[in-house]
Known about the structure:
Elements: E1 3-11, H1 18-23, E2 28-35, H2 42-51, E3 56-60, H3 66-76, E4 81-84, E5 89-91, H4 93-103, E6 109-120, E7 124-125, E8 132-140, E9 144-146, E10 156-158, E11 161-172, H5 178-198, H6 205-222, H7 229-258, H8 269-281
Parallel strand pairs: 1-2, 1-4, 2-3, 6-11
Antiparallel strand pairs: 4-8, 5-11, 6-7, 6-8, 9-10
Amino acid sequence: MALPLSAFIICKNEAAYLGNCLESLRCCSEIVVVDSGSTDGTLDLIADYAERGFPIRLFERGWPGYAAQKQFALEQCTQPWCLNIDADERLDRALVDALPALLAASDHIAGWKIARRPFLIGYGYTPEHAHERRNLRLIRKGRGTYDLSLMVHEGIVPDGEVRPSKEGSLLHFRPLPLDEQILKENNYSSLKADMQLERGRKPSVVKLLFSPTTYFLRLYFRTGLWRCGVPGLIQAMTGAAYSFMTEAKKFERTALRDGPPVEDGTEIWWRESGNSEERDIA
């Protein structure tokens, strides 16, 4: 029997990943998908799953940004509970088993934070005790909205108590080679740096020095990536690089805002000597 739960997904060109996401949502009464212009077969895949009886409601909409698109998707949900899930995520069996109890929570609980376990190249999914921090993904209908000012790491702002789910995880399957992952981290760090500067958060030498180290230590030891061998070390170091790029870009953007790079001539020794030669020839 389907649960009183709407899953909502935003996507574009996710044909390689979306199928297994939808398969893991068989327990949902509704699956809201908002597509922003796929050209890789994603729409055909969605149509195929709808024909097979999956309760999909598809919306096609231009791209207004992460938070605005997710807010739109959330507003289309009709069930008492709503689950925010990405196309490259899947519910693990433990989370599916835990959902009935989570949805039966008393009314004062507005939502649940859920752990996420990434897939590491050379290792596989991290073990249950090596998950990312829990984030609010399961929200009671009408008890949360997205902060539209966030450019990256958008999240639901709840109206009421939120608790962590002790059981189950979202599985994150996007095994990007490191060169592609760094490009992704570069893009996210740009968005985060711009967002923080717009909010008046100035560059900080202390953060530039210590945030990458703190980020690494949190991922490697607190999150438990040390359990995953070299792939876990690479994942933690990639996170530290993201943190460093964010702080470094805040310094560079501030410097560029104060004025473009201009050579002041103090070290350009040939300019004066060149002019002298021209005067002698004349």
